[in-house]
Amino acid sequence: MKVYFGSDSLDRRYDNAVVALGNFDGVHIGHQRLIFRMRELAEKKNAASVVYTFDPHPVQVLAPDAAPLLIQTLEQKLRSIEDLGVDVCVVEKFTKEFAKHTARSFVENVLLQKIGAGGVVVGYDFTFAFQRSGCVEDLQRIGAESGIDVFVMEPQFLGDMLLSSTEIRNFIQEGRVDQANTMLGRLFCMQGIVVKGKGRGGSLGAHTANVQPDNSIIPGGGVYLTLTGVDHEEDVKSITSIGFNPTFHQKEMSIETHLIEFTGDLLGKRISVKFIEKIRDQIAFPSPQALIVQIKEDIKGAKELHEKRSDKKC
Predict the structure, then answer these.
(1) Which CATH architecture describes the domain 2-157?
(2) Distance between CA atoms of 101 and 305, rounded to whole angstroms?
Protein backbone atom coordinates (compact mmCIF):
# COMPACT_ATOMS: atom_id res chain seq x y z
CA MET A 1 0.00 0.00 0.00
CA LYS A 2 1.31 3.41 -0.98
CA VAL A 3 0.96 5.93 1.85
CA TYR A 4 0.92 9.70 1.35
CA PHE A 5 1.12 12.03 4.34
CA GLY A 6 -1.03 14.88 3.08
CA SER A 7 -2.84 15.30 -0.24
CA ASP A 8 -0.23 17.88 -1.23
CA SER A 9 2.38 15.09 -1.22
CA LEU A 10 0.61 13.07 -3.91
CA ASP A 11 3.04 12.47 -6.77
CA ARG A 12 0.28 11.65 -9.25
CA ARG A 13 -3.49 11.71 -9.76
CA TYR A 14 -5.26 8.37 -9.43
CA ASP A 15 -7.77 8.98 -12.20
CA ASN A 16 -11.24 7.59 -11.52
CA ALA A 17 -10.11 6.24 -8.12
CA VAL A 18 -12.73 5.16 -5.62
CA VAL A 19 -12.10 6.77 -2.23
CA ALA A 20 -13.29 5.71 1.23
CA LEU A 21 -13.54 8.76 3.49
CA GLY A 22 -13.44 8.66 7.28
CA ASN A 23 -11.47 8.66 10.51
CA PHE A 24 -11.62 4.84 10.71
CA ASP A 25 -10.51 4.69 14.34
CA GLY A 26 -10.13 1.02 15.21
CA VAL A 27 -10.84 -0.09 11.62
CA HIS A 28 -13.70 -2.15 13.07
CA ILE A 29 -16.01 -4.52 11.19
CA GLY A 30 -18.23 -1.64 10.02
CA HIS A 31 -15.20 0.17 8.59
CA GLN A 32 -14.01 -3.06 7.01
CA ARG A 33 -17.34 -3.53 5.23
CA LEU A 34 -17.16 0.04 3.91
CA ILE A 35 -13.60 -0.45 2.67
CA PHE A 36 -14.49 -3.79 1.04
CA ARG A 37 -17.38 -2.02 -0.74
CA MET A 38 -14.94 0.67 -1.92
CA ARG A 39 -12.58 -2.01 -3.25
CA GLU A 40 -15.42 -3.75 -5.13
CA LEU A 41 -16.37 -0.48 -6.83
CA ALA A 42 -12.72 0.26 -7.66
CA GLU A 43 -12.29 -3.16 -9.24
CA LYS A 44 -15.39 -2.61 -11.41
CA LYS A 45 -13.91 0.67 -12.61
CA ASN A 46 -10.43 -0.87 -12.97
CA ALA A 47 -9.25 1.99 -10.78
CA ALA A 48 -7.20 2.46 -7.61
CA SER A 49 -8.74 1.84 -4.20
CA VAL A 50 -7.96 4.75 -1.89
CA VAL A 51 -8.56 5.39 1.82
CA TYR A 52 -8.52 9.05 2.83
CA THR A 53 -8.23 9.66 6.56
CA PHE A 54 -6.99 12.23 9.06
CA ASP A 55 -4.25 12.59 11.65
CA PRO A 56 -4.72 13.93 14.23
CA HIS A 57 -8.41 13.21 14.76
CA PRO A 58 -10.31 16.43 13.82
CA VAL A 59 -11.84 16.74 17.30
CA GLN A 60 -8.32 16.80 18.83
CA VAL A 61 -7.73 20.05 16.89
CA LEU A 62 -11.15 21.70 17.02
CA ALA A 63 -12.31 20.73 20.53
CA PRO A 64 -9.41 19.04 22.36
CA ASP A 65 -11.30 18.79 25.66
CA ALA A 66 -13.91 16.64 23.93
CA ALA A 67 -11.45 14.56 21.88
CA PRO A 68 -11.92 10.78 22.09
CA LEU A 69 -9.21 8.43 23.29
CA LEU A 70 -8.24 6.63 20.10
CA ILE A 71 -8.41 2.85 19.75
CA GLN A 72 -5.33 2.62 17.55
CA THR A 73 -2.11 4.48 16.96
CA LEU A 74 -1.61 5.77 13.42
CA GLU A 75 0.87 2.95 12.79
CA GLN A 76 -1.72 0.37 13.83
CA LYS A 77 -4.45 1.99 11.75
CA LEU A 78 -2.30 2.02 8.62
CA ARG A 79 -1.38 -1.64 9.15
CA SER A 80 -5.06 -2.57 9.51
CA ILE A 81 -5.98 -0.68 6.35
CA GLU A 82 -3.13 -2.29 4.42
CA ASP A 83 -4.31 -5.72 5.57
CA LEU A 84 -7.61 -5.05 3.76
CA GLY A 85 -5.84 -4.90 0.39
CA VAL A 86 -6.09 -1.14 -0.20
CA ASP A 87 -3.88 0.35 -2.93
CA VAL A 88 -3.37 3.86 -1.55
CA CYS A 89 -3.88 5.65 1.76
CA VAL A 90 -3.81 9.43 2.12
CA VAL A 91 -3.30 10.61 5.70
CA GLU A 92 -4.30 14.27 5.75
CA LYS A 93 -2.77 16.35 8.53
CA PHE A 94 -5.79 17.99 10.10
CA THR A 95 -5.19 21.61 11.07
CA LYS A 96 -7.38 24.62 11.83
CA GLU A 97 -6.41 25.95 8.41
CA PHE A 98 -7.47 22.75 6.67
CA ALA A 99 -10.74 22.88 8.61
CA LYS A 100 -11.66 26.09 6.74
CA HIS A 101 -12.41 24.11 3.56
CA THR A 102 -15.97 24.53 2.37
CA ALA A 103 -17.80 21.41 1.23
CA ARG A 104 -17.31 22.40 -2.41
CA SER A 105 -13.62 23.29 -2.10
CA PHE A 106 -12.91 19.96 -0.36
CA VAL A 107 -14.65 17.96 -3.08
CA GLU A 108 -13.26 19.92 -6.01
CA ASN A 109 -9.74 20.74 -4.77
CA VAL A 110 -8.88 17.65 -2.75
CA LEU A 111 -10.98 14.74 -4.00
CA LEU A 112 -11.17 15.69 -7.67
CA GLN A 113 -8.07 17.73 -8.50
CA LYS A 114 -5.48 16.17 -6.18
CA ILE A 115 -6.65 12.57 -5.89
CA GLY A 116 -8.61 12.22 -9.14
CA ALA A 117 -11.64 10.58 -7.50
CA GLY A 118 -14.32 9.08 -9.69
CA GLY A 119 -16.21 7.59 -6.77
CA VAL A 120 -16.50 8.10 -3.02
CA VAL A 121 -17.80 5.78 -0.28
CA VAL A 122 -18.86 7.18 3.11
CA GLY A 123 -20.85 6.14 6.14
CA TYR A 124 -24.41 7.34 6.69
CA ASP A 125 -23.33 9.86 9.37
CA PHE A 126 -20.35 11.34 7.51
CA THR A 127 -19.82 15.10 7.97
CA PHE A 128 -17.09 17.31 6.58
CA ALA A 129 -16.01 20.87 5.73
CA PHE A 130 -16.02 24.07 7.79
CA GLN A 131 -17.75 23.59 11.17
CA ARG A 132 -18.93 20.16 9.91
CA SER A 133 -21.36 22.00 7.66
CA GLY A 134 -21.17 19.38 4.91
CA CYS A 135 -23.35 16.29 5.17
CA VAL A 136 -23.96 13.23 3.01
CA GLU A 137 -26.58 15.07 0.94
CA ASP A 138 -24.11 17.89 0.21
CA LEU A 139 -21.49 15.36 -0.84
CA GLN A 140 -23.97 13.66 -3.17
CA ARG A 141 -25.07 16.97 -4.72
CA ILE A 142 -21.57 18.37 -5.26
CA GLY A 143 -20.31 14.96 -6.35
CA ALA A 144 -23.00 14.76 -9.04
CA GLU A 145 -22.02 18.21 -10.29
CA SER A 146 -18.34 17.23 -10.33
CA GLY A 147 -18.74 13.80 -11.93
CA ILE A 148 -18.04 11.84 -8.74
CA ASP A 149 -20.30 8.92 -7.84
CA VAL A 150 -21.15 8.93 -4.13
CA PHE A 151 -22.08 5.70 -2.32
CA VAL A 152 -23.48 5.86 1.21
CA MET A 153 -23.25 2.90 3.56
CA GLU A 154 -26.23 2.34 5.84
CA PRO A 155 -25.67 1.79 9.58
CA GLN A 156 -23.80 -1.47 10.08
CA PHE A 157 -24.82 -3.99 12.73
CA LEU A 158 -23.37 -7.15 14.22
CA GLY A 159 -26.43 -8.97 15.47
CA ASP A 160 -28.33 -6.22 17.24
CA MET A 161 -25.18 -4.16 18.02
CA LEU A 162 -24.52 -0.99 16.04
CA LEU A 163 -20.88 -1.07 14.97
CA SER A 164 -19.35 2.09 16.37
CA SER A 165 -15.90 3.31 17.43
CA THR A 166 -17.55 5.11 20.36
CA GLU A 167 -19.12 1.89 21.61
CA ILE A 168 -15.82 0.02 21.24
CA ARG A 169 -14.04 2.71 23.28
CA ASN A 170 -16.67 2.32 26.00
CA PHE A 171 -16.20 -1.45 26.05
CA ILE A 172 -12.41 -1.11 26.34
CA GLN A 173 -12.56 1.42 29.17
CA GLU A 174 -15.10 -0.74 31.01
CA GLY A 175 -12.77 -3.75 30.71
CA ARG A 176 -15.18 -5.58 28.40
CA VAL A 177 -12.44 -6.29 25.90
CA ASP A 178 -14.14 -9.44 24.63
CA GLN A 179 -17.09 -7.29 23.48
CA ALA A 180 -14.70 -4.80 21.88
CA ASN A 181 -12.91 -7.64 20.09
CA THR A 182 -16.19 -8.88 18.63
CA MET A 183 -16.84 -5.48 17.06
CA LEU A 184 -13.23 -5.00 15.97
CA GLY A 185 -13.05 -8.41 14.31
CA ARG A 186 -9.68 -9.01 16.02
CA LEU A 187 -8.07 -8.63 19.43
CA PHE A 188 -7.67 -5.12 20.81
CA CYS A 189 -3.93 -4.45 20.76
CA MET A 190 -1.92 -2.03 22.88
CA GLN A 191 1.69 -1.40 21.98
CA GLY A 192 4.48 0.33 23.85
CA ILE A 193 7.95 0.25 25.37
CA VAL A 194 8.98 -1.80 28.39
CA VAL A 195 10.27 0.56 31.07
CA LYS A 196 11.74 0.07 34.54
CA GLY A 197 8.99 -0.59 37.09
CA LYS A 198 8.87 -0.90 40.88
CA GLY A 199 10.80 -4.18 40.79
CA ARG A 200 8.24 -6.07 42.87
CA GLY A 201 7.52 -8.82 40.32
CA GLY A 202 10.39 -11.12 41.26
CA SER A 203 9.60 -11.02 44.98
CA LEU A 204 5.94 -11.76 44.19
CA GLY A 205 6.82 -14.82 42.14
CA ALA A 206 6.15 -13.45 38.66
CA HIS A 207 8.51 -11.19 36.72
CA THR A 208 6.55 -8.62 34.74
CA ALA A 209 7.19 -6.16 31.93
CA ASN A 210 6.09 -2.65 32.87
CA VAL A 211 4.59 -1.15 29.71
CA GLN A 212 4.61 2.52 28.74
CA PRO A 213 1.81 2.51 26.13
CA ASP A 214 1.68 4.32 22.80
CA ASN A 215 -2.10 3.98 22.70
CA SER A 216 -4.21 6.68 24.30
CA ILE A 217 -6.99 4.32 25.39
CA ILE A 218 -6.27 1.72 28.07
CA PRO A 219 -8.56 -1.08 29.29
CA GLY A 220 -10.18 -0.54 32.68
CA GLY A 221 -8.45 -1.83 35.79
CA GLY A 222 -8.21 -5.58 36.20
CA VAL A 223 -6.34 -8.73 35.30
CA TYR A 224 -6.57 -9.86 31.67
CA LEU A 225 -5.79 -12.90 29.57
CA THR A 226 -3.46 -11.62 26.86
CA LEU A 227 -0.99 -12.48 24.12
CA THR A 228 2.25 -10.51 23.96
CA GLY A 229 4.54 -10.00 20.99
CA VAL A 230 8.14 -8.86 21.51
CA ASP A 231 9.79 -6.77 18.77
CA HIS A 232 7.23 -8.07 16.22
CA GLU A 233 8.09 -11.70 16.98
CA GLU A 234 5.49 -14.45 17.44
CA ASP A 235 2.97 -13.87 20.25
CA VAL A 236 3.65 -15.40 23.67
CA LYS A 237 0.90 -16.44 26.11
CA SER A 238 0.64 -13.86 28.85
CA ILE A 239 -1.42 -12.35 31.64
CA THR A 240 -1.66 -8.59 32.17
CA SER A 241 -2.56 -6.48 35.20
CA ILE A 242 -3.77 -2.89 34.85
CA GLY A 243 -4.39 -0.61 37.80
CA PHE A 244 -2.98 1.05 40.90
CA ASN A 245 -1.76 -2.03 42.81
CA PRO A 246 -4.20 -1.42 45.71
CA THR A 247 -2.33 -3.85 47.96
CA PHE A 248 0.64 -1.43 47.91
CA HIS A 249 -1.47 1.80 47.76
CA GLN A 250 0.23 2.83 44.54
CA LYS A 251 -0.81 6.27 43.22
CA GLU A 252 0.33 5.83 39.60
CA MET A 253 -1.46 3.46 37.25
CA SER A 254 0.70 0.65 35.92
CA ILE A 255 0.40 -1.87 33.10
CA GLU A 256 2.31 -5.04 33.94
CA THR A 257 2.51 -8.08 31.68
CA HIS A 258 3.78 -11.49 32.73
CA LEU A 259 4.88 -13.61 29.77
CA ILE A 260 4.16 -17.25 30.61
CA GLU A 261 7.06 -19.66 30.01
CA PHE A 262 9.26 -16.87 28.68
CA THR A 263 12.78 -15.97 29.76
CA GLY A 264 14.73 -12.95 28.65
CA ASP A 265 15.33 -9.29 29.37
CA LEU A 266 12.49 -7.13 28.00
CA LEU A 267 13.64 -3.74 29.30
CA GLY A 268 13.65 -1.19 26.48
CA LYS A 269 11.99 -3.53 23.99
CA ARG A 270 8.84 -2.75 22.03
CA ILE A 271 5.99 -5.09 22.82
CA SER A 272 2.39 -5.46 21.70
CA VAL A 273 -0.22 -6.75 24.14
CA LYS A 274 -3.40 -8.28 22.69
CA PHE A 275 -6.30 -8.45 25.12
CA ILE A 276 -8.50 -11.55 25.01
CA GLU A 277 -10.76 -11.27 28.06
CA LYS A 278 -10.90 -9.96 31.59
CA ILE A 279 -10.16 -12.55 34.30
CA ARG A 280 -10.93 -10.52 37.41
CA ASP A 281 -11.08 -7.03 38.91
CA GLN A 282 -8.25 -5.44 40.86
CA ILE A 283 -8.38 -6.39 44.55
CA ALA A 284 -6.66 -4.96 47.63
CA PHE A 285 -5.21 -7.98 49.43
CA PRO A 286 -4.57 -7.94 53.20
CA SER A 287 -0.87 -8.72 52.73
CA PRO A 288 1.80 -9.30 50.06
CA GLN A 289 1.68 -13.01 50.96
CA ALA A 290 -2.03 -13.17 50.09
CA LEU A 291 -1.26 -11.43 46.78
CA ILE A 292 1.46 -14.00 46.01
CA VAL A 293 -1.07 -16.81 46.46
CA GLN A 294 -3.54 -15.03 44.13
CA ILE A 295 -0.88 -14.37 41.49
CA LYS A 296 -0.06 -18.10 41.41
CA GLU A 297 -3.77 -18.86 40.98
CA ASP A 298 -4.08 -16.21 38.25
CA ILE A 299 -1.16 -17.64 36.28
CA LYS A 300 -2.48 -21.19 36.66
CA GLY A 301 -5.92 -20.08 35.49
CA ALA A 302 -4.44 -18.13 32.58
CA LYS A 303 -2.50 -21.19 31.42
CA GLU A 304 -5.71 -23.23 31.43
CA LEU A 305 -7.63 -20.55 29.51
CA HIS A 306 -4.84 -20.28 26.95
CA GLU A 307 -4.89 -24.07 26.50
CA LYS A 308 -8.63 -23.99 25.89
CA ARG A 309 -8.13 -21.32 23.22
CA SER A 310 -5.38 -23.43 21.59
CA ASP A 311 -7.73 -26.43 21.51
CA LYS A 312 -10.40 -24.37 19.76
CA LYS A 313 -7.96 -23.44 17.00
CA CYS A 314 -7.05 -27.07 16.23
Answers:
(1) 3-Layer(aba) Sandwich (3.40)
(2) 52
